């Protein structure tokens, strides 16, 4: 893959994931090429890749748009995230002796402090980055970084709904509380509780989908 093509793909993907390019927004290849100072070819290639990610809809001879949020796809991506992480978390908990558990708990507490600072600062982007950092910790500690990359590349719609949900302060506050409970369970070496808290924490987003659809109907596909 050419470096330019990869770069264009990454830039457009980030704009879509951050909702800078909104669900349903029309995408003009010529305009994008001009804005990114590239030819049409890498733009077309990037849009085709994004369509495979279910982030872009390409209509031959008609046009291209940012894909609407599809509840069925989001539920499947969330199922993937929950199933994979619970497996990784069990491996993580099993690997902890008393000393390593204290070390990991201390590192996780540091992430929580930084996340709390971003919440106080009203920086939702930084808050979400710390959210990802906390969950990535389980993958990195168990040498499952590749699984995280696979997960990240296949859950773009789940990411978009997370960004949208964090517009509500109450959601961010709930996330922080759930993270605190999770880290406390890890610190106490309680595998069963850690798994239950993490599963309930990640399931919340699925339970909020209908409310999100009502609050942002213009972003969702019509079933």
Poorly predicted regions: none
* Largest sheet, spatial ordering of strands: 1-3-2
Number of helical regions: 11
Which of globular, elongated, flat, extended, rod-shaped describes the shape?
Answer: elongated
What fraction of residues sit in β-strands? under 5%
Radius of gyration: 19 Å
Whole-number average pLDDT?
93
Count of distinct strands: 3
The rounded distance between the terminal residues' Cα atoms is 36 Å
Could you say which structural class the secondary elements and strand pairing correspond to? mainly alpha
The biggest sheet, with number of strands, parallel, antiparallel or mixed sense and barrel status, is:
3 strands, antiparallel
Helical percent range?
over 70%
- In N-to-C order, the SSE pattern is HEHHEEHHHHHHHH
């Amino acid at each position: 893959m050419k470096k330019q093509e990869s770069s264009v793909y990454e830039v457009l993907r980030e704009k879509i994931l951050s909702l800078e390019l909104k669900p349903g927004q029309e995408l003009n290849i010529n305009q994008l090429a001009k804005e990114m100072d590239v030819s049409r070819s890498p733009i077309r290639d990037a849009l085709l890749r994004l369509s495979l990610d279910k982030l872009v809809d390409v209509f031959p001879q008609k046009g291209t748009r940012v894909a609407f949020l599809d509840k069925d796809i989001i539920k499947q991506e969330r199922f993937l995230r929950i199933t994979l992480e619970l497996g990784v978390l069990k491996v993580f908990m099993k690997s902890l002796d008393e000393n390593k558990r204290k070390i990991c708990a201390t590192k996780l507490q540091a992430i929580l402090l930084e996340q709390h600072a971003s919440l106080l600062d009203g920086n939702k982007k930084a808050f979400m980055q710390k959210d990802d950092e906390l969950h990535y910790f389980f993958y990195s500690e168990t040498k499952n970084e590749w699984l995280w990359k696979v997960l990240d590349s296949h859950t773009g719609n789940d990411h978009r709904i997370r960004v949208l949900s964090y517009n509500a302060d109450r959601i961010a506050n709930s996330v922080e509380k759930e993270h605190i409970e999770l880290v406390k369970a890890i610190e106490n070496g309680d595998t069963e509780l850690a798994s239950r808290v993490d599963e309930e924490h990640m399931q919340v987003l699925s339970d909020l989908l209908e409310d999100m659809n009502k609050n942002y109907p213009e972003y969702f596909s019509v079933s």
